[in-house]
Amino acid sequence: MPLGSTSKRPGRPSSPPADAAPPSATPGARTATPVSRWLDSPPSARDLPPLTGLRGYLTACALLAVLLGPDLVKRIAVGAHLAGAPAWVTWPRHWPAAAIYGAVLTATAVWLLALEGRRARRADPDGCRPVLPTAAAGGVGLLGVALCALTGTGRGQTWADIIGVVAVAGAGVWLCLGVARDRGISAAQMGIAPPWAADRPGRIQAVTIAAISLSACVIGTKLLIPHQMSLPVPTMTTSQADLLGGTDLSFRVMGLAAGFREETVFVAATAVMLTAAGRPLRELYAVSMTARILWHAYIGVPALGVALFAVANLWLFTRTRRLTPLITVHLAYNALLDYWPQGLTYVLVLLILAALLLQADARPAHRSGKTP
């Protein structure tokens, strides 16, 4: 048949060209895209190199132990103290914050040096290690050793705590990305600056993620946790800074760093490693939610209120493979929590959700393939 012929072969119905618009679509027609369509990611984001189940679990647990382990032990000990546990169980609650950060940085530096050495051997078995990453990892280790030696009180201790928690947050992201790269997983698959998020739909998706995550956070911290604190259960009766052993300034900085530490480990690292290992979603949720609740054990039984936030963030990440919006929401919420009236927070959440659910993204119909 000559090219361009419009006649039909027997038994084969004709189909319109791939780039043709639907019959009902007209130029300039606009339609709203459902929220569910925004919460998607391309197949390349989910095409992870396979890991064995044991290796996936070991990697996720090792990252959790190295980056958050000492802090986690202290927070659980504080929660046990609130529940009336004996002193031999709760003694880790007296660990100095600077010493905890020093131990984390030292262990992180050892792992980073091992990763850089393995990477250099793969690239050039007879070559030398790259100078800059090796020197940076060594600097992380030296800072960790220095912080381990700093104990006491006063302004110097406060600044040691601040430097330590900021360094731990940055080194933790570096280690998670390094471990992922060592296992063939890119930074984009870990949710850091994925290329499919650079256009307008990607920005709308980021707003959607932020709105849902913020809503879950507000419901948990403004409704569930305060309600549980009014019940006759073990709960904190003093400030969080006093419970964790620090000043108000160091605790504020720690709250900002928590956005990086918690979301990178509890969400991205856990989800990616266990998904690559072929584990079912229920195991991802169980590990992530349990770790997040234990991380907030220092407030007592009301720590169960963070379960909604944990589930929402993990669900958003598994759907979209976007980590940066989750970190941004967590960081902004902790930064503005003490300065926003509670009513304003609810109003903002409702406005964001209303805009998203009604008509946030009106696209040309010939792109979405739907009629107005």
Q: What do these coordinates show?
A:
The chain is mainly alpha-helical. The protein has one domain. It is 65% helix and 2% strand. A two-stranded antiparallel sheet has the order 1-2. Helix 7 packs parallel to helix 10. The protein starts with 29 loop residues before the first strand and ends with a helix. 37% of the residues are buried.
Q: How many distinct helices?
A: 15
Beta-strand content: under 5%
Rg for CA atoms: 25 Å
Class computed from helices, strands and strand pairing? mainly alpha
The main sheet comes to:
2 strands, antiparallel
GO molecular function: endopeptidase activity; metallopeptidase activity
Domain CAAX prenyl protease 2/Lysostaphin resistance protein A-like: 253-336
Keywords: Hydrolase, Membrane, Metalloprotease, Protease, Transmembrane, Transmembrane helix
Protein name: CPBP family intramembrane metalloprotease
